């Protein structure tokens, strides 16, 4: 990928998304979170996004 295209993508992401960083116990990640995501056939990031959406849906309902 050329530099111009990479810059465009990075600018797009910077303007359209907010990166959220948090810490989680490594044992919780390895023993619970990652296996749950694998079992569902999704990534951990997707699992977290779905959990947030479900929480907000229940909270607003």
Can you walk through the features of this model?
It contains 3 helices and no strands. It has helices at residues 3-16, 26-40, 44-60. It is extended, with a radius of gyration of 16 Å. The chain starts with a helix and ends with a helix. The model has no long low-confidence stretch (mean pLDDT 95).
For the structure shown, list the relevant keywords.
3 helices, mainly alpha, 61 residues
Helix and strand composition category: mainly alpha
Order of helices and strands: HHH
In this structure, how is the largest beta sheet organized? none
As a whole number of angstroms, the C-alpha radius of gyration is: 16 Å
Helix amount: over 70%
Distance between the termini: 45 Å
Helix tally?
Answer: 3
Fraction of residues in β-strands: under 5%
- How many strands in all? 0
Approximate shape? extended
What is the gist of this entry?
This protein is an all-alpha fold and 61 residues long.
Write the SSE topology.
Layout: H1 3-16, H2 26-40, H3 44-60
């Amino acid at each position: 990928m050329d530099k111009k295209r990479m810059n465009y993508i990075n600018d797009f992401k910077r303007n359209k998304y907010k990166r959220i960083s948090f810490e989680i116990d490594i044992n919780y990640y390895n023993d619970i979170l990652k296996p749950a995501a694998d079992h569902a056939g999704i990534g951990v990031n997707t699992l977290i996004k779905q959990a947030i959406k479900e929480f907000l849906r229940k909270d607003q309902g």
